[in-house]
Amino acid sequence: MPWLYFAAFVFLLCSHLGAAAGVVYRGLLPGRDEDVIGAGIAWARLNLGGTNQETVVETFYKAQVTATVSMQPDIQYIASPSGIYRDALAVGLRFTVTP
């Protein structure tokens, strides 16, 4: 059965202010009730110089291949990492096997 979940929060950590929000949807495709798609965004104000902020946008799709195996491609775009580096793109693929 499809379901949608949304979360957002603001945080203060070591004098750094930040905020994050994300959405997750399960059962996007017919017959794929255990698959999950999600996206999120996070922002942090930093005190390191440069832009003094970092923003991350992420999206993923978790495919439940079998009852015990899942595969999850993920892509993240990081604007101004640590507030002082050039923008970055991170791409990953996670395999999970549960007993």
Describe this structure in words.
The protein is elongated. It is mainly beta. It has one domain (3-97). The chain is built from no helices and 6 strands.
Distance between the termini: 24 Å
Order of helices and strands: EEEEEE
In angstroms, what is the radius of gyration? Answer: 16 Å
Class computed from helices, strands and strand pairing: mainly beta
- State the helicity in percent bands: under 10%
- Number of E strands: 6
GO molecular function: porin activity
InterPro entries: Carb-sel_porin_OprB, OprB_sf
Pfam families: OprB
Protein name: Carbohydrate-selective porin, OprB family
Outline of the structure:
With 99 residues, the protein is mainly beta. The chain has strands at residues 3-13, 16-26, 36-45, 53-64, 69-79, 88-97.
Question: What keywords describe this structure?
Answer:
mainly beta; 99 residues; 66% strand
Task: Write the SSE topology.
Blueprint: E1 3-13, E2 16-26, E3 36-45, E4 53-64, E5 69-79, E6 88-97
Antiparallel strand pairs: 1-2, 2-3, 3-4, 4-5, 5-6
